[in-house]
Amino acid sequence: MVKLTATHARVTLVRQPETSNQTMSLQDRYDEAMFEFSGGHYADCIAKLQAVLAMDPLNFEAQLALGMAYYRLGNYPTAIVEGHKAEQLKPHEQLVHTNLSLFYMKAGDKKTAEHHGLQARIASWRLPVPGPGETEVADPELQMAKPKPVPPSKFPEQPWKKKTITPPVPGL
Question: What is the pTM of this model?
């Protein structure tokens, strides 16, 4: 767990002793791994992400982060393997192909890197596009409040549309 403490307008991150692994949720384990990643401790991050994936092999975020952790360590072949595992979970995800393009480029395979770069571009086109004036919000609770519709006001009098009854003309 991470505890933030503020002392004289200075924020410091303090590591709390970890609780028992049996009581930590899967999300807590993932968060711990991401904390290690953000601190540059990629080997520790990899170990924790592998533990998360051992519990939930279909955890897409953990699989994607594992590939990036290997990339940051400079282990490009393993990063590519882990990136392809993430691709199997979500084949049309833009970030998967962006990462694979980066991994292949660093590994020296420009042709495959360009292929995955193109796949990332195609994946971005598949995203639903909001209409004019609309913004896409993933969580409906986060949408901005919409104004209440104003009922239409009464139309003004239109005398030319009124049907008037003319009296019958005598003698016709």
Answer: 0.62
Residues 61-76 have pLDDT tens digits of 999 999 999 999 999 9
Q: Given the structure tokens 């519709």, which residue do they identify? A: 149
Neighbour count for residue 83 (Cβ, 10 Å): 27
Cα–Cα distance between 85 and 153 in angstroms, integer? 59
The per-residue pLDDT for range 113-142, each reduced to its tens digit, is 999 898 889 888 876 656 665 656 567 777
From the list 57, 60, 32, the residue with the least C-alpha distance to 45 is: 32
CATH of 2-126, one of 1.10.10.10, 1.10.630.10, 3.40.50.2300, 1.25.40.10: 1.25.40.10
3-state secondary structure of 145: coil
In angstroms, the CA 170 to CA 32 distance is 99
